Amino acid sequence: MVTTAPRRPQPARRRPFPRRTQAEAARFRRSLLLVALSAVAPGSAQLIAGNRRLGTIALRAWAGILIIVGLVAWQVPLDTLASLAVRPWLLTMFKVVTAIVAIAWIVLLIDAWRLGNPPRLIQKHRLMLLAATLALIALVATPFVIATRYASAAHDTVVSMFSSGDVAAAADGRLNIVLLGGDAGDGRHGNRPDSIHLVSLDVRTGLPVLISLPRNLESARFPDGTPADNAFPYGFSGDGDRSEYLLNATWTYGDANPDLFPGSSNPGAEAVKQAVSGTLGIPVHYYVIVDLQGFQDLVDAVGGITIKAERDVPISHGEVISAGVQQLDGFHALWYARSRTGSDDYDRMARQRCVLGAMLHELDPGAVLANFVDLLEASESLVATDIPYQQLPDLVAAASKAKDLPLTSLQLVPPLIVPADPDFGVIANEVRAAFEASLALGDGPGGADETSTSPPDEPDDIAASNATPDKADADEAEPAAALVGEVCSYG
What we know:
The strands form three sheets. The chain has a six-stranded mixed beta sheet, sandwiched between helices. The chain has a three-stranded antiparallel beta sheet with strand order 8-5-11. It folds into two domains: 19-161, no CATH class; 174-490, Aminopeptidase (3-Layer(aba) Sandwich), CATH 3.40.630.190. The longest helix is centred in the first third of the chain and has 39 residues, at 123-161. It is an alpha+beta fold. The protein is built from 17 helices and eleven strands. The chain has helices at residues 19-40, 44-49, 52-75, 78-84, 88-115, 123-161, 227-231, 250-256, 267-280, 292-301, 330-338, 345-362, 365-370, 372-380, 392-402, 424-443, 464-467, and strands at residues 174-181, 195-202, 208-213, 286-290, 305-309, 313-314, 320-321, 324-328, 383-385, 408-411, 488-490.
């Protein structure tokens, strides 16, 4: 009898994957691939599965765009791009081109979805393909929406804030702008600037000079031959309350006497411009008045400023900004610049100069780009100016250079001058010396990297008020134009 060993049970064979399922998976992968390729290289889906001519045109256009963007990023500095971003016509063109490219790309994505033949897919795959296509459309559209928003915000700000007008010619290679801190409010008659500074930019090198004038300066001069000069041949003075004839009162006087400042849409601002011009003995091309609340918003928009305070400064509600390195938000930067507690106007002028310098230092192209829309929104409540938008590209280019250059600062304070009885000859000498010192920084052995405006044996940071010991010796003393360092520093 023959016996056989029992057979071991054989594992069940897997049933082959149905052809229909394999075909469905292949169609789904192909559909996803077409949409993905179109998101990376618009036109590639059409070149593979659709209108080859359309795909070729789209791919060539996309390659051209990438080459242009690459060349711009490689060859064009951010400073130059910033100067281009204040041209309204260019911003409008950018918005139109951006919209056309975005719409064309989205249309190509939708066509890639169509080329995937979704009706032949099962419902699950149709929904997944649709979701993937919509997600890619959102991904592609987002940067274009952001770019359009930036361009629209910049265009609207430039057009609303700056009027169209003639571009001023630089005087001796410099553009001079009066920067005013507005102090209008309840209980005040008109607008009396709380701070008065002149910013002078060398249009060739960008080297900046900042001249601070005391708001309580008396007998301010007006340029020769102007109606205001004819009305005040011996300076801005008259009978009655002396406070009505201080430098910062010229704004309210101009508003009340527009006939002395003809041809200006803002006679108050024009009066301040002329008073600063006549007092310093140089042309003043433009004015910018900074609303104090707007300044606070601007500091917040840029992420705050960093200063090094040399002593404690009491501010509101018993709070104190302590000596040392401080990161200030808009509220504290404003109070630091304006606090009167335990200080005089000249101390405040030095702190204001420091805050302005810190702001200039913080506004690098990266910070501007990162906070672009917030900066524009803050600027809408910040500025009133007579700068025409046609001048903006040159000013932006000069300001971009100035950010990393040494700031030459001159404070016209006692004992250098006596605000109640200023010596305009001394003022003219000091202003000229400030410009010469700034020019030396650009033309010296080290070029713009040279930061010292003092002899080698003297410290770099010297207060202008210490350089001229008294008014009697002012004509014989060497004029001073140096950085002020006793109150605070930045950078």
